[in-house]
Write a structure and sequence with these properties.
By secondary structure, the protein is mainly β. Helix content is 0%, strand content 37%. The strands form 5 sheets. Strands 1, 2, 3, 4 and 5 form a 5-stranded antiparallel beta sheet that branches.
Length: 259
């Protein structure tokens, strides 16, 4: 407040902006909650009404919720011949989390996956999520793809031109963890008669949530791929011998066996 209803006019007023951080959203309150952590402090000198943009000096490097709180204190006002310090009779601090005074740095979960072994004619995706918000569900969509291209060491950002989506399955995570999707049947009939069988691979994406970013994986990563090989049968000739001889035949099978 100012003495005798006076206003500082062109005299500069120094505003203090304290930035507070919390991993969880905090409600509006008259005072800063005890669970909030001081993140940074900045100042603004303004000589009159207007709109001013003030940024924290420290980068917001943690996912969570940031709250600026503005205050004016007599002790922090600049001195001089015409100082607003002489006009201020009481310090003032804004309430915590006023409307519009919340900035969110979203969580950025990451995924690593491994294709499961083929069993009973189906295949699953083993998913590990890291960096997710602990108490907010996210949905990971795994899509089984088929392509004639072979796996690449670093994968590729775009699907190959001949890639075809065979099926999708959604898995829900709350926080970090590892899960295996339900098995997805492989449509063997699509390529049983073809001379060359495709590569099956998983590619994942995270759907964005209220406080978590979207994420999209790469195609043809080796750990997420299974190169199908058309079965081959070789029957080596048995050894000869005097007549009569017992004839036997042994078949050696290689390649991927639909099961």
């Amino acid at each position: 407040s100012f003495a005798s209803g006076e206003r500082p006019g062109a005299v500069s007023v120094r505003y203090r902006i304290d930035w507070w951080f919390s991993r969880d959203p905090l409600p509006q309150s008259a005072q800063v909650p005890a669970t909030a952590e001081r993140f940074d402090t900045t100042w603004l000198d303004a000589a009159g009404p207007g709109t001013h943009t003030v940024q924290s000096r420290r980068p917001a490097d943690q996912a969570g919720f940031y709250y600026p709180v503005v205050s004016v204190t007599r002790a922090e006002q600049p001195g001089g011949e015409r100082s607003v310090r002489d006009l201020i009779t009481a310090d003032w601090t804004a309430p915590f989390h006023e409307e519009g005074e919340e900035a969110v740095v979203p969580w950025a979960p990451q995924i690593s996956t491994r294709a499961g072994a083929i069993a009973d004619g189906a295949i699953a995706d083993r998913i590990t999520v890291r960096g997710a918000r602990p108490d907010e569900p996210i949905e990971v969509v795994s899509t089984l793809m088929a392509s004639r291209e072979r796996p690449q060491a670093e994968g590729v950002s775009e699907a190959p031109a001949d890639a075809e989506a065979l099926a999708s399955v959604t898995t829900t995570f709350t926080g970090d963890g590892t899960q295996e999707t339900r098995p997805v049947p492989i449509p063997w009939e699509r390529f049983l008669t073809e001379p060359t069988w495709p590569t099956l691979y998983w590619v994942e994406r995270i759907e964005p949530s209220a406080h978590q970013r979207a994420w999209t994986g790469r195609h043809l990563l080796p750990d997420e791929s299974v190169v199908l090989e058309r079965p081959q049968v070789r029957t080596p000739a048995g050894a000869g011998g005097p007549v009569p001889v017992e004839v036997t035949d042994t078949a050696e099978v290689s390649g991927t066996i639909p099961a």
